[in-house]
Amino acid sequence: MAPSAYPAWNRPSDPFIELISAATLADRVAELGRAITADYVAAGATEDVVVLGVLKGSVLFMADLVRHIALPVTLDFIGVASYGDATVSSGVVQITQDLTRPIAGKHVLVVEDIVDTGHTLSYLLANLATRGPASLKLCSLLHKPERSEREVPIDYLGFTIPNKFVVGYGLDVSQRYRNLPFIGYVAGA
Ligand code: IMP
What we know:
- The structure is a single chain.
- By secondary structure, the protein is an alpha/beta fold.
- It has a single domain, classed as Rossmann fold, CATH 3.40.50.
- 21% of the residues lie in helices and 33% in strands.
- The protein is built from 3 helices and 9 strands.
- A 6-stranded mixed beta sheet has the order 4-3-2-5-6-7, sandwiched between helices. A 3-stranded antiparallel beta sheet has the order 1-9-8, covered by helices on one side.
- The chain starts with 15 loop residues before the first strand and ends with a strand.
- Inosinic acid binds next to strand 5, helix 3 and strand 8.
- Inosinic acid (IMP) is lined by residues 57, 82, 89, 112-120, 165-167, 171.
């Protein structure tokens, strides 16, 4: 592609290799929403389902996903910080922003961008389980099984990806690139 033809978010100075295109993301997210709808209907979950996004990486995925969940839902968010450097999780997890409402007796669907080592979700699911939800399920857009250190049950999974540090569609490196419409990695990384 001629340099002038590069979209602004994929300049030669930021040469992303596309791993999952925007169109492929959209198709898979719609499929996940349909599967979630069918399962909760079959399980008789007629009360509001609490769709709980893990800040900040899940925000773009969650916004698209809930538009394909044909059920009454409420939205909430939880913030977690995992100590470590930009690309390596230390396994020490802290809640930086808690839910706005109790989840006791509610059907809770946690929405996450990626399960990498599994430390964050393993901690978070255990924490949420102590709050007495009627059910607790996990929907993750991505999973990097090669990096797994903790077994995390993923009820709904978008894509299994290779061991690359990916950005875009909500995922960042040092808070940048969340707005890329596709998922990719920096060339050479
Ligand atoms: P964990 O290693 O499963 O605990 O993942 C912790 C968090 O690290 C995830 O929720 C992401 O926010 C972040 N993370 C892990 N892998 C990637 C990646 O490839 N790109 C961007 N963020 C990542």
